[in-house]
Amino acid sequence: MTQERKPERVQKVLAAAGLGSRRACEELIAAGRVAVDGATVTLGAKVDPTSQVVTVDGERVATNPDLVHLLLNKPLGVVTTVTDPQGRPTVMGLVPANPRVYPVGRLDQDTEGLLIMTNDGELANRLAHPRYEVEKTYVAQVRGQLRRRAVRTLLEGVDLEDGPARARSVRELGSAADRTLVEIVLAEGRKREVRRMLAAVGIPVERLARVKLGPLPLGDISPGKYRPLTGAEVRDLYRAVGLGSPDAPQADGARGGAGDGGRVRP
Fold first, then answer.
1. Which of 222, 254, 214, 256 is nearest to 238 (CA)?
2. HSE-up of 209 (CA within 13 Å, CB side)?
3. Domain-located, residue 19
4. Annotated active-site residue in 37, 108, 236, 260
5. H-helix or E-strand containing 148?
6. What is the pLDDT of residue 29?
7. Is 87 exposed, middle or buried (0-12, 13-18, 19+ CB in 10 A)?
């Protein structure tokens, strides 16, 4: 349960969220660019960062210090679950036990790459909800060549056993001998979807990694390692899923919200 905190001056909260120096944040407030729960504030105003929504130029700022946002480079052989009845290693063993965070969506055991771990329930639900069509970018190492007909079919859509699937974009990144690197962008994340789509056009996948989620790239973080997201990165993710003003509509079944800090609960 989130511990109740005393209200703090808005400029202090903004500075702690990475918006700049306290002086720079005071200038944002003086310019009328800062709002709390939808109402523009003036210098001297205070806010409870755990329960109120702060926006700058209409974009939400992650002010709740109880919320944690981590970028993990999931390695091969690790499952994206909180626990595993088969005793396989899970992503929970790669991040600190406290504060408790949870994976956003799922990467298959044999898929590596970018995974968000967070206790920000509102953001997590929107990133995973198909309504918001957050793009997911993958790089696949495949056998053989990427032919134009296969690219066209992937862009037009292929029929899978759980319904049609279509890529937003497909492009070749390079090739050597009988191996090709293929970048494919999807706006949904069904189980083993990339592998099944490529198999449907006769392209077997040897290795697969997610390298970007919405506006957030994986970068050069090593497999099995994680890092906290910056305030700017969290704001970019909020923007990608429409988390701007405090009255923005929530995804179906969203857990948490502004009133309780949007924290994921087990």
1. 214
2. 17
3. yes
4. 108
5. helix 148-156
6. 96
7. exposed
Q: Cα separation of 117 and 103, whole Å?
A: 4
Q: Is 150 exposed, middle or buried (0-12, 13-18, 19+ CB in 10 A)?
A: buried
* 167, 188 Cβ separation under 8 angstroms: no
pTM as predicted: 0.85
- Identify the bridge partners of residue 102 per DSSP, sorted by sequence position: 118
Tokens of 150: 């296969």
* Each residue's pLDDT tens digit, 108-146: 999 999 999 999 999 999 999 888 999 999 999 999 889
CATH of the domain at 77: 3.30.70.580
Decide if 108 is catalytic. Answer: yes
Integer Cα distance of 3 and 74 in angstroms: 31
Nearest in space to 71 (alpha carbons), one of 243, 232, 227, 255: 227
Long-range pairs, 150-157, Cβ under 8 A, ≥24: 150/201, 150/202, 150/203, 153/200, 153/201, 154/184, 154/197, 154/198, 154/201
pLDDT in tens, 213-248: 999 999 999 999 999 999 889 999 999 998 865 554
Residue 179 falls inside a structural domain: yes
Segment 30-41 shows an average pLDDT of 94
If asked whether residues 189 and 148 sit together in one domain, one would say yes
Per the structure, the complete domain to which residue 52 belongs is given by 8-61
Query: Using one digit for the tens of pLDDT, what is the confidence trace for 176-212?
Result: 888 999 999 999 878 899 999 999 999 999 999 999 9
